[in-house]
Hints:
44% strand; single chain
Amino acid sequence: DRMLICNMDYDQYIVSAVAKDYKCWSLDLAASPLIWTALPPPPMKLFLSTSASWEGQLAIIGGSQEHHHDLGQLDGTRQLQLYNPREGNWGLGPPLPASLFEGCAVPMGSHGLLVLGDFESGPTNLYLLSGPGGKWRQMPESRHLHVRPGCAAATLAGGLEGMVAISGDNAEFFSFLAEKWVEMPAPLVPRAQNMKVSVGLSQGKLVVAGGWDSSLQEMSQRVEAWEDASGWVAYPRDLSEGRTHQAELSLPASLCEAPKA
Length: 261
């Protein structure tokens, strides 16, 4: 198994910034000691992209060529950039149906890849990428507008398989079986809508962590876990320090696993 990571280097950011360099690395999790290896950069240098694994490849989804403190000044892209770790090269996948920056993407096994965000074409904000060659399909619109959502694949009570999306005090679950969104109780910590929280799995539990605590006006260290019987509960341990934006809680499925037929 490997973990792939890309990092953007840019000119000093005060109001806006332009990309200067984009570096990627691979971490071999089976090596002892762990080994980082430099990878070739993706074809396009983009800010505010979303990433996930899809068909055994690293997918960089959407993004903006510039960074600006006013999101209204940014233009998203429809680019889907794919890194194949077995062949060691980048390629382009089927373009997104609409421009996107700062969304979230969740691999859903045989279903495909779900991408949620504030697409620029209108209210539809959830698409599914599936099929051997990759084809996008419009999915039901979420109940809430998610500008910087945290998302994770989850199985809730009754074996419902789907995706949880959280931004601010809004939490909801997309059920694949019913192909509809279901409202969930808000997490315990009141969080700002425009600061991304981390959502993932820890010891088999759905967990939300970090974000911006809107009551204390500071980055949150709080971690909460979902219990089917009682809803959100405080996790036994908090983060060592406050976190917002892109910190993830769990590794995706193996990026080097051969795609299933």
